[in-house]
Amino acid sequence: VTWRVAARIIVIGDSNVGKTCLTYRFCAGRFPQRTEATIGVDFRERAVTIDGERIKVRPGRRRGGGSP
Ligand SMILES: Nc1nc2c(ncn2[C@@H]2O[C@H](COP(=O)(O)OP(=O)(O)OP(=O)(O)O)[C@@H](O)[C@H]2O)c(=O)[nH]1
Ligand SMILES: [Mg+2]
């Protein structure tokens, strides 16, 4: 598949506010049973269709603190 649109979403926020749960829900369709504090950056992908256009969305889950 050749993507005409690939959107990257970066989720940044304080620790333990639910970033991992939010992005997991978006990509997997359900909430995780339990999560551990994210170290560094996580990556997920989901393809969505908007106005008939297939768009690849990559929400990157980031931990609360630390350097970029
Ligand atoms: N009640 C409630 N709890 C939530 C919700 N979303 C997440 N949690 C809980 O909040 C805690 C932290 O969620 P995470 O998604 O791991 O938080 P995070 O922002 O990724 O945390 P870090 O990776 O440490 O930065 C977990 O115990 C979740 O079960 C929500 O919408 N409601
Ligand atoms: Mg996390």
From TrEMBL:
Could you tell me the keywords of this UniProt record? GTP-binding, Nucleotide-binding
Check the record and name the InterPro entries matching this protein. Answer: P-loop_NTPase, Small_GTPase
The superkingdom of the source organism is Eukaryota
Cited Gene3D superfamilies: P-loop containing nucleotide triphosphate hydrolases
Xref: PROSITE patterns? RAB (PS51419)
Q: Which SUPFAM superfamilies match?
A: P-loop containing nucleoside triphosphate hydrolases
Question: A Gene Ontology molecular-function term?
Answer: GTPase activity
Matching entries from PANTHER family are given as:
PTHR47978
Q: Which family does it belong to?
A: Belongs to the small GTPase superfamily. Rab family.
Name the chain's protein.
Uncharacterized protein
Q: Which organism is it from?
A: Otus sunia
What taxonomic lineage is listed for the species of origin? Eukaryota, Metazoa, Chordata, Craniata, Vertebrata
